[in-house]
From TrEMBL:
Domain called ER-bound oxygenase mpaB/mpaB'/Rubber oxygenase catalytic: residue spans: 131-342
Signal peptide: 1-30
Keyword Zinc-finger: no
A Pfam entry, by short name: MPAB_Lcp_cat
Organism: Amycolatopsis albispora
Keywords, comma-separated and alphabetical: Signal
Record-level Gene Ontology MF annotations: oxidoreductase activity
Protein name: Latex clearing protein
InterPro entries: Lcp-like, MPAB/Lcp_cat_dom, TAT_signal
Domain of life of the source: Bacteria
Protein backbone atom coordinates (compact mmCIF):
# COMPACT_ATOMS: atom_id res chain seq x y z
CA UNK A 1 0.00 0.00 0.00
CA UNK A 2 1.45 3.40 -0.85
CA UNK A 3 2.08 6.02 1.79
CA UNK A 4 -0.88 8.19 0.84
CA UNK A 5 -3.45 5.43 1.07
CA UNK A 6 -2.00 4.03 4.25
CA UNK A 7 -2.31 7.48 5.79
CA UNK A 8 -5.88 7.90 4.56
CA UNK A 9 -6.88 4.50 5.87
CA UNK A 10 -5.40 5.26 9.25
CA UNK A 11 -7.09 8.65 9.28
CA UNK A 12 -10.40 7.13 8.28
CA UNK A 13 -9.89 4.32 10.77
CA UNK A 14 -9.39 6.90 13.51
CA UNK A 15 -12.60 8.65 12.61
CA UNK A 16 -14.44 5.39 12.59
CA UNK A 17 -12.94 4.30 15.86
CA UNK A 18 -15.20 6.85 17.50
CA UNK A 19 -18.23 5.11 16.07
CA UNK A 20 -17.22 1.75 17.42
CA UNK A 21 -16.00 -1.43 15.77
CA UNK A 22 -17.99 -0.95 12.61
CA UNK A 23 -16.46 -3.73 10.63
CA UNK A 24 -17.57 -6.12 13.31
CA UNK A 25 -20.96 -4.47 13.49
CA UNK A 26 -21.43 -4.65 9.73
CA UNK A 27 -24.78 -6.31 9.24
CA UNK A 28 -23.91 -7.54 5.74
CA UNK A 29 -23.92 -11.22 6.58
CA UNK A 30 -26.96 -10.99 8.78
CA UNK A 31 -29.54 -10.34 6.06
CA UNK A 32 -31.24 -13.60 5.13
CA UNK A 33 -32.56 -13.96 1.61
CA UNK A 34 -36.31 -14.40 1.82
CA UNK A 35 -37.24 -12.79 -1.49
CA UNK A 36 -39.37 -15.18 -3.50
CA UNK A 37 -38.23 -16.43 -6.90
CA UNK A 38 -41.87 -16.06 -7.98
CA UNK A 39 -41.07 -12.37 -8.55
CA UNK A 40 -38.03 -13.16 -10.66
CA UNK A 41 -37.40 -13.23 -14.37
CA UNK A 42 -37.43 -17.04 -14.13
CA UNK A 43 -40.70 -16.99 -12.16
CA UNK A 44 -39.51 -19.97 -10.15
CA UNK A 45 -36.34 -21.21 -8.55
CA UNK A 46 -34.60 -23.86 -6.51
CA UNK A 47 -34.77 -21.57 -3.49
CA UNK A 48 -31.02 -21.72 -2.77
CA UNK A 49 -29.87 -18.74 -0.69
CA UNK A 50 -27.73 -16.71 -3.15
CA UNK A 51 -25.31 -15.75 -0.38
CA UNK A 52 -23.93 -19.25 -0.90
CA UNK A 53 -23.97 -19.25 -4.70
CA UNK A 54 -21.10 -17.77 -6.70
CA UNK A 55 -20.36 -18.64 -10.34
CA UNK A 56 -19.98 -22.40 -10.59
CA UNK A 57 -19.11 -22.29 -14.31
CA UNK A 58 -16.56 -19.46 -14.33
CA UNK A 59 -14.93 -19.78 -10.90
CA UNK A 60 -13.09 -23.11 -11.18
CA UNK A 61 -12.06 -22.29 -14.73
CA UNK A 62 -10.50 -18.93 -13.90
CA UNK A 63 -8.92 -20.27 -10.71
CA UNK A 64 -7.23 -22.86 -12.89
CA UNK A 65 -6.09 -20.22 -15.40
CA UNK A 66 -4.52 -18.25 -12.55
CA UNK A 67 -2.86 -21.32 -11.04
CA UNK A 68 -1.35 -22.39 -14.33
CA UNK A 69 -0.11 -18.84 -15.10
CA UNK A 70 -2.21 -18.36 -18.26
CA UNK A 71 -3.86 -15.04 -17.39
CA UNK A 72 -1.36 -12.63 -18.99
CA UNK A 73 -1.54 -14.48 -22.31
CA UNK A 74 -5.35 -14.68 -22.14
CA UNK A 75 -5.62 -10.94 -21.42
CA UNK A 76 -3.42 -10.19 -24.39
CA UNK A 77 -5.64 -12.25 -26.68
CA UNK A 78 -8.85 -10.83 -25.23
CA UNK A 79 -7.73 -7.24 -25.86
CA UNK A 80 -8.59 -7.85 -29.52
CA UNK A 81 -12.08 -9.18 -28.67
CA UNK A 82 -14.24 -6.07 -28.47
CA UNK A 83 -17.50 -6.61 -30.41
CA UNK A 84 -20.36 -8.89 -29.42
CA UNK A 85 -20.53 -10.59 -32.77
CA UNK A 86 -16.78 -11.03 -33.23
CA UNK A 87 -15.41 -14.57 -33.18
CA UNK A 88 -13.28 -15.35 -30.13
CA UNK A 89 -9.57 -14.90 -30.81
CA UNK A 90 -7.62 -17.99 -31.85
CA UNK A 91 -5.28 -19.40 -29.25
CA UNK A 92 -7.51 -19.24 -26.16
CA UNK A 93 -7.31 -22.31 -23.90
CA UNK A 94 -10.01 -24.76 -25.00
CA UNK A 95 -11.83 -24.82 -21.65
CA UNK A 96 -12.03 -21.00 -21.57
CA UNK A 97 -13.23 -20.83 -25.16
CA UNK A 98 -15.96 -23.34 -24.47
CA UNK A 99 -17.14 -21.36 -21.44
CA UNK A 100 -17.09 -18.03 -23.27
CA UNK A 101 -18.98 -19.38 -26.29
CA UNK A 102 -21.74 -20.39 -23.94
CA UNK A 103 -21.56 -17.27 -21.73
CA UNK A 104 -21.94 -14.90 -24.67
CA UNK A 105 -25.35 -16.32 -25.68
CA UNK A 106 -28.32 -14.10 -24.86
CA UNK A 107 -31.12 -15.84 -22.95
CA UNK A 108 -34.34 -16.69 -24.82
CA UNK A 109 -36.19 -13.93 -22.95
CA UNK A 110 -34.04 -11.17 -24.49
CA UNK A 111 -36.48 -8.80 -26.18
CA UNK A 112 -34.99 -6.70 -28.97
CA UNK A 113 -38.02 -4.44 -29.15
CA UNK A 114 -37.56 -3.52 -25.49
CA UNK A 115 -33.84 -3.00 -26.06
CA UNK A 116 -34.59 -0.52 -28.85
CA UNK A 117 -36.88 1.40 -26.47
CA UNK A 118 -34.20 1.24 -23.77
CA UNK A 119 -31.87 2.97 -26.18
CA UNK A 120 -34.39 5.78 -26.74
CA UNK A 121 -34.58 6.20 -22.98
CA UNK A 122 -30.79 6.27 -22.64
CA UNK A 123 -30.54 8.83 -25.41
CA UNK A 124 -33.10 11.12 -23.84
CA UNK A 125 -31.86 10.67 -20.30
CA UNK A 126 -28.12 10.36 -20.86
CA UNK A 127 -27.25 13.42 -18.81
CA UNK A 128 -29.19 12.35 -15.75
CA UNK A 129 -27.93 8.79 -16.13
CA UNK A 130 -24.29 9.90 -16.23
CA UNK A 131 -24.60 11.83 -13.00
CA UNK A 132 -26.67 9.15 -11.30
CA UNK A 133 -24.40 6.23 -12.24
CA UNK A 134 -21.37 8.25 -11.19
CA UNK A 135 -22.55 9.90 -8.01
CA UNK A 136 -25.56 7.95 -6.75
CA UNK A 137 -24.43 4.41 -7.72
CA UNK A 138 -20.68 5.08 -7.56
CA UNK A 139 -20.77 6.73 -4.15
CA UNK A 140 -23.27 4.18 -2.85
CA UNK A 141 -20.80 1.42 -3.71
CA UNK A 142 -18.46 2.90 -1.08
CA UNK A 143 -21.02 2.24 1.66
CA UNK A 144 -21.68 -1.33 0.58
CA UNK A 145 -19.11 -2.85 2.93
CA UNK A 146 -18.41 -6.06 1.04
CA UNK A 147 -18.00 -4.26 -2.26
CA UNK A 148 -15.85 -1.47 -0.79
CA UNK A 149 -13.49 -3.97 0.79
CA UNK A 150 -13.31 -6.18 -2.29
CA UNK A 151 -12.52 -3.21 -4.49
CA UNK A 152 -10.04 -1.75 -2.04
CA UNK A 153 -7.92 -4.86 -1.60
CA UNK A 154 -8.09 -6.13 -5.17
CA UNK A 155 -5.63 -5.16 -7.87
CA UNK A 156 -7.78 -2.30 -9.19
CA UNK A 157 -8.01 -0.69 -5.74
CA UNK A 158 -4.56 0.79 -6.23
CA UNK A 159 -5.64 2.86 -9.23
CA UNK A 160 -9.17 4.09 -8.77
CA UNK A 161 -9.15 6.30 -11.81
CA UNK A 162 -8.43 3.37 -14.08
CA UNK A 163 -10.96 1.24 -12.23
CA UNK A 164 -13.68 3.83 -12.53
CA UNK A 165 -13.09 4.12 -16.27
CA UNK A 166 -13.41 0.35 -16.58
CA UNK A 167 -16.57 0.20 -14.51
CA UNK A 168 -17.98 3.20 -16.37
CA UNK A 169 -17.45 1.26 -19.58
CA UNK A 170 -20.32 -1.01 -18.57
CA UNK A 171 -22.56 1.98 -17.85
CA UNK A 172 -21.61 3.40 -21.23
CA UNK A 173 -21.99 0.17 -23.20
CA UNK A 174 -25.42 -0.66 -21.80
CA UNK A 175 -26.72 2.70 -23.01
CA UNK A 176 -25.59 2.39 -26.63
CA UNK A 177 -27.94 1.70 -29.55
CA UNK A 178 -26.37 -1.64 -30.32
CA UNK A 179 -25.57 -2.64 -26.71
CA UNK A 180 -26.47 -6.32 -27.16
CA UNK A 181 -26.32 -6.42 -30.98
CA UNK A 182 -23.45 -8.01 -32.93
CA UNK A 183 -21.70 -4.64 -33.47
CA UNK A 184 -22.15 -3.55 -29.82
CA UNK A 185 -19.89 -4.22 -26.85
CA UNK A 186 -22.06 -4.93 -23.81
CA UNK A 187 -21.91 -8.73 -24.12
CA UNK A 188 -18.12 -8.60 -24.34
CA UNK A 189 -17.95 -6.28 -21.33
CA UNK A 190 -20.21 -8.57 -19.28
CA UNK A 191 -18.39 -11.77 -20.18
CA UNK A 192 -15.01 -10.18 -19.39
CA UNK A 193 -16.38 -8.81 -16.11
CA UNK A 194 -17.67 -12.27 -15.26
CA UNK A 195 -14.10 -13.54 -15.68
CA UNK A 196 -12.76 -10.64 -13.57
CA UNK A 197 -15.18 -11.43 -10.76
CA UNK A 198 -14.22 -15.12 -10.90
CA UNK A 199 -10.55 -14.11 -10.60
CA UNK A 200 -11.31 -11.89 -7.61
CA UNK A 201 -13.07 -14.80 -5.87
CA UNK A 202 -9.88 -16.83 -6.19
CA UNK A 203 -7.36 -14.06 -5.45
CA UNK A 204 -8.90 -11.99 -2.68
CA UNK A 205 -9.03 -14.76 -0.06
CA UNK A 206 -5.24 -14.97 -0.52
CA UNK A 207 -4.75 -11.29 0.39
CA UNK A 208 -3.04 -10.82 3.76
CA UNK A 209 -5.71 -8.19 4.55
CA UNK A 210 -8.68 -10.38 3.78
CA UNK A 211 -8.98 -12.52 6.93
CA UNK A 212 -8.87 -9.34 9.07
CA UNK A 213 -11.56 -7.40 7.25
CA UNK A 214 -13.90 -9.85 5.57
CA UNK A 215 -16.72 -11.69 7.21
CA UNK A 216 -16.83 -14.24 4.42
CA UNK A 217 -14.53 -16.77 2.80
CA UNK A 218 -15.37 -16.13 -0.83
CA UNK A 219 -16.38 -12.66 -2.07
CA UNK A 220 -18.92 -11.63 -4.74
CA UNK A 221 -21.75 -14.07 -4.12
CA UNK A 222 -24.91 -13.89 -6.25
CA UNK A 223 -26.56 -12.01 -3.38
CA UNK A 224 -23.71 -9.48 -3.33
CA UNK A 225 -24.09 -9.00 -7.07
CA UNK A 226 -27.79 -8.25 -6.70
CA UNK A 227 -26.98 -5.75 -3.93
CA UNK A 228 -24.63 -3.93 -6.29
CA UNK A 229 -27.13 -4.24 -9.13
CA UNK A 230 -29.69 -2.36 -7.02
CA UNK A 231 -27.18 0.42 -6.43
CA UNK A 232 -27.31 0.82 -10.21
CA UNK A 233 -30.68 0.63 -12.04
CA UNK A 234 -32.94 0.48 -9.00
CA UNK A 235 -31.33 3.50 -7.35
CA UNK A 236 -31.18 5.42 -10.62
CA UNK A 237 -34.87 4.83 -11.34
CA UNK A 238 -35.84 5.68 -7.75
CA UNK A 239 -33.98 9.01 -8.02
CA UNK A 240 -35.44 9.93 -11.41
CA UNK A 241 -38.90 9.15 -10.09
CA UNK A 242 -38.27 11.25 -6.97
CA UNK A 243 -37.10 14.12 -9.20
CA UNK A 244 -40.35 13.78 -11.17
CA UNK A 245 -38.58 13.21 -14.47
CA UNK A 246 -41.40 12.15 -16.80
CA UNK A 247 -40.76 8.58 -17.96
CA UNK A 248 -43.28 6.69 -20.12
CA UNK A 249 -44.06 3.24 -18.70
CA UNK A 250 -42.67 1.50 -21.79
CA UNK A 251 -39.30 3.24 -21.41
CA UNK A 252 -39.14 2.45 -17.73
CA UNK A 253 -39.78 -1.26 -18.40
CA UNK A 254 -37.31 -1.23 -21.27
CA UNK A 255 -34.56 0.29 -19.12
CA UNK A 256 -35.22 -2.42 -16.54
CA UNK A 257 -35.04 -5.05 -19.27
CA UNK A 258 -31.60 -3.89 -20.42
CA UNK A 259 -30.34 -4.24 -16.84
CA UNK A 260 -32.05 -7.62 -16.31
CA UNK A 261 -30.16 -8.80 -19.35
CA UNK A 262 -26.98 -7.25 -17.98
CA UNK A 263 -27.43 -9.18 -14.73
CA UNK A 264 -27.94 -12.43 -16.65
CA UNK A 265 -24.86 -11.83 -18.80
CA UNK A 266 -22.81 -11.15 -15.63
CA UNK A 267 -23.67 -14.67 -14.50
CA UNK A 268 -26.50 -13.86 -12.09
CA UNK A 269 -29.13 -16.61 -12.09
CA UNK A 270 -32.54 -15.67 -13.49
CA UNK A 271 -34.24 -16.77 -10.27
CA UNK A 272 -32.59 -13.86 -8.40
CA UNK A 273 -33.25 -11.15 -11.03
CA UNK A 274 -36.44 -9.14 -10.32
CA UNK A 275 -39.11 -9.27 -13.04
CA UNK A 276 -40.54 -5.77 -12.42
CA UNK A 277 -39.69 -2.49 -10.73
CA UNK A 278 -42.07 -3.34 -7.90
CA UNK A 279 -40.13 -6.57 -7.33
CA UNK A 280 -36.80 -4.75 -7.71
CA UNK A 281 -37.80 -2.17 -5.12
CA UNK A 282 -38.95 -4.82 -2.70
CA UNK A 283 -35.76 -6.85 -3.15
CA UNK A 284 -33.60 -3.72 -2.75
CA UNK A 285 -35.38 -2.85 0.46
CA UNK A 286 -34.57 -6.27 1.75
CA UNK A 287 -30.98 -6.70 0.59
CA UNK A 288 -29.48 -3.26 -0.16
CA UNK A 289 -30.83 -0.81 2.41
CA UNK A 290 -29.91 -2.84 5.53
CA UNK A 291 -26.30 -3.53 4.49
CA UNK A 292 -25.28 0.09 3.88
CA UNK A 293 -22.58 1.05 6.40
CA UNK A 294 -19.29 2.90 6.52
CA UNK A 295 -15.90 1.16 6.48
CA UNK A 296 -12.41 2.69 6.52
CA UNK A 297 -11.90 1.30 3.02
CA UNK A 298 -15.15 2.81 1.70
CA UNK A 299 -14.37 6.20 3.24
CA UNK A 300 -11.00 6.24 1.52
CA UNK A 301 -12.54 5.17 -1.82
CA UNK A 302 -15.19 7.88 -1.55
CA UNK A 303 -12.53 10.48 -0.90
CA UNK A 304 -10.64 9.37 -4.00
CA UNK A 305 -13.84 9.51 -6.06
CA UNK A 306 -14.68 13.01 -4.87
CA UNK A 307 -11.22 14.23 -5.77
CA UNK A 308 -11.33 12.81 -9.30
CA UNK A 309 -13.63 15.50 -10.65
CA UNK A 310 -11.29 18.31 -9.74
CA UNK A 311 -8.48 16.59 -11.64
CA UNK A 312 -10.54 16.87 -14.80
CA UNK A 313 -12.28 20.16 -14.15
CA UNK A 314 -11.15 22.11 -11.10
CA UNK A 315 -14.22 24.38 -11.26
CA UNK A 316 -17.63 22.87 -11.72
CA UNK A 317 -16.65 19.37 -10.55
CA UNK A 318 -14.69 20.45 -7.49
CA UNK A 319 -14.78 18.28 -4.39
CA UNK A 320 -17.25 20.50 -2.44
CA UNK A 321 -19.75 20.45 -5.30
CA UNK A 322 -19.48 16.70 -5.88
CA UNK A 323 -19.80 16.26 -2.12
CA UNK A 324 -22.93 18.41 -2.00
CA UNK A 325 -24.49 16.41 -4.85
CA UNK A 326 -23.67 13.19 -3.04
CA UNK A 327 -25.33 14.50 0.13
CA UNK A 328 -28.34 15.63 -1.88
CA UNK A 329 -28.72 12.30 -3.66
CA UNK A 330 -27.85 9.83 -0.92
CA UNK A 331 -28.90 11.78 2.17
CA UNK A 332 -27.23 13.08 5.31
CA UNK A 333 -26.55 9.74 6.94
CA UNK A 334 -24.46 8.38 4.07
CA UNK A 335 -22.74 11.75 3.49
CA UNK A 336 -21.82 11.93 7.19
CA UNK A 337 -20.53 8.35 7.16
CA UNK A 338 -18.26 9.34 4.28
CA UNK A 339 -16.98 12.43 6.13
CA UNK A 340 -18.37 14.69 3.41
CA UNK A 341 -18.37 18.29 4.63
CA UNK A 342 -21.58 20.27 4.72
CA UNK A 343 -21.63 22.95 2.02
CA UNK A 344 -24.25 25.45 3.21
CA UNK A 345 -24.47 27.27 -0.12
CA UNK A 346 -24.62 24.21 -2.36
CA UNK A 347 -26.67 22.10 0.01
CA UNK A 348 -29.43 24.69 0.23
CA UNK A 349 -29.27 25.54 -3.46
CA UNK A 350 -29.80 21.88 -4.36
CA UNK A 351 -32.60 21.50 -1.83
CA UNK A 352 -34.44 24.52 -3.17
CA UNK A 353 -33.66 24.66 -6.86
CA UNK A 354 -33.01 21.13 -8.15
CA UNK A 355 -36.61 20.01 -8.61
CA UNK A 356 -37.70 23.29 -10.26
CA UNK A 357 -34.60 23.02 -12.46
CA UNK A 358 -35.68 19.55 -13.60
CA UNK A 359 -39.22 20.82 -14.18
CA UNK A 360 -37.93 23.66 -16.35
CA UNK A 361 -35.58 21.36 -18.19
CA UNK A 362 -38.42 18.95 -18.86
CA UNK A 363 -40.68 21.74 -20.09
CA UNK A 364 -43.06 21.24 -17.19
CA UNK A 365 -42.49 24.69 -15.70
CA UNK A 366 -42.38 27.56 -18.14
CA UNK A 367 -40.36 30.15 -16.25
CA UNK A 368 -36.88 29.59 -14.92
CA UNK A 369 -36.90 30.94 -11.38
CA UNK A 370 -33.18 31.29 -10.93
CA UNK A 371 -31.53 31.17 -14.34
CA UNK A 372 -27.98 31.40 -13.02
CA UNK A 373 -28.26 28.41 -10.74
CA UNK A 374 -29.98 26.50 -13.55
CA UNK A 375 -27.15 27.20 -15.91
CA UNK A 376 -24.73 25.88 -13.31
CA UNK A 377 -26.82 22.75 -12.78
CA UNK A 378 -26.97 22.15 -16.50
CA UNK A 379 -23.24 22.61 -16.86
CA UNK A 380 -22.72 20.28 -13.92
CA UNK A 381 -24.87 17.60 -15.55
CA UNK A 382 -22.91 17.82 -18.77
CA UNK A 383 -19.50 17.75 -17.13
CA UNK A 384 -20.37 14.96 -14.72
CA UNK A 385 -21.92 12.84 -17.46
CA UNK A 386 -18.75 13.32 -19.47
CA UNK A 387 -16.56 12.42 -16.53
CA UNK A 388 -18.47 9.31 -15.54
CA UNK A 389 -19.61 7.93 -18.87
CA UNK A 390 -18.03 9.26 -22.00
CA UNK A 391 -14.45 8.84 -20.82
CA UNK A 392 -15.03 5.12 -20.62
CA UNK A 393 -14.86 4.11 -24.24
CA UNK A 394 -11.43 2.84 -25.26
CA UNK A 395 -10.77 0.93 -22.02
CA UNK A 396 -10.02 -2.77 -22.02
CA UNK A 397 -11.27 -4.84 -19.08
CA UNK A 398 -8.58 -7.29 -17.99
CA UNK A 399 -8.51 -10.30 -15.66
CA UNK A 400 -6.41 -9.40 -12.59
CA UNK A 401 -3.66 -11.83 -11.62
CA UNK A 402 -2.75 -10.31 -8.26
CA UNK A 403 -4.40 -8.47 -5.41
CA UNK A 404 -3.64 -4.83 -4.61
CA UNK A 405 0.12 -4.50 -4.40
CA UNK A 406 1.40 -3.91 -0.85
C1 LIG B 1 -14.60 -5.57 -11.49
C2 LIG B 1 -19.15 -4.35 -12.67
C3 LIG B 1 -20.68 -6.61 -8.66
C4 LIG B 1 -16.15 -6.33 -6.96
C5 LIG B 1 -15.70 -5.14 -12.19
C6 LIG B 1 -15.68 -4.61 -13.53
C7 LIG B 1 -16.95 -4.22 -13.84
C8 LIG B 1 -17.78 -4.55 -12.72
C9 LIG B 1 -17.41 -3.58 -15.16
C10 LIG B 1 -14.46 -4.53 -14.43
C11 LIG B 1 -13.70 -3.30 -14.16
C12 LIG B 1 -12.35 -3.55 -13.61
O1 LIG B 1 -11.68 -4.52 -13.99
O2 LIG B 1 -11.94 -2.76 -12.78
C13 LIG B 1 -19.96 -4.92 -11.71
C14 LIG B 1 -21.42 -4.95 -11.78
C15 LIG B 1 -21.84 -5.63 -10.66
C16 LIG B 1 -20.66 -5.96 -9.89
C17 LIG B 1 -22.25 -4.33 -12.89
C18 LIG B 1 -23.23 -5.99 -10.23
C19 LIG B 1 -24.28 -5.97 -10.99
C20 LIG B 1 -19.59 -6.65 -7.83
C21 LIG B 1 -19.63 -7.03 -6.43
C22 LIG B 1 -18.36 -6.93 -5.95
C23 LIG B 1 -17.51 -6.52 -7.04
C24 LIG B 1 -20.87 -7.44 -5.69
C25 LIG B 1 -17.83 -7.23 -4.57
C26 LIG B 1 -18.55 -7.59 -3.54
C27 LIG B 1 -15.34 -6.15 -8.06
C28 LIG B 1 -13.88 -6.21 -8.00
C29 LIG B 1 -13.44 -6.02 -9.32
C30 LIG B 1 -14.62 -5.83 -10.15
C31 LIG B 1 -13.05 -6.43 -6.76
C32 LIG B 1 -12.02 -6.11 -9.86
C33 LIG B 1 -11.15 -4.98 -9.54
C34 LIG B 1 -9.75 -5.25 -10.03
O3 LIG B 1 -9.47 -5.08 -11.20
O4 LIG B 1 -8.93 -5.62 -9.21
N1 LIG B 1 -16.99 -5.11 -11.73
N2 LIG B 1 -19.55 -5.53 -10.56
N3 LIG B 1 -18.29 -6.36 -8.16
N4 LIG B 1 -15.74 -5.94 -9.34
FE1 LIG B 1 -17.63 -5.80 -9.97
Amino acid sequence: MDKHSRRSVLKAGGALGALGALSLASPAQAVPWTWSAKGSVAGTGAGTDPRWVWDPEADPLVADLLDRGDVAAVNQLLRTWTKNGQPLPAGLPADLREFMEQARQLPPWADHGKLATAYEFNEKRGLYLGVLYGLASGMMSTVIPKEARAVYYSQGGADMKDRISKTAKLGYDIGTRNAYAPDGEMIVTCVKTRLVHAAVRHLLPQSPHWPGVADEDIPISQADMMVTWHSLPTTVMQKMTAWKVPIPAGESTAFLHSWQLGAHMLGIKDEYIPASWAEANSQAKQVLDPVLAPTPEGIDLADILLNLGAEVDGGILSKPILGAFTRFMLGDQIADWLNIDREPLWDSLLDVAWEPFIAVREGLLPLPLAPKAYWMFDEFLRKAALLFLSEAKPISIEIPDTNRPE
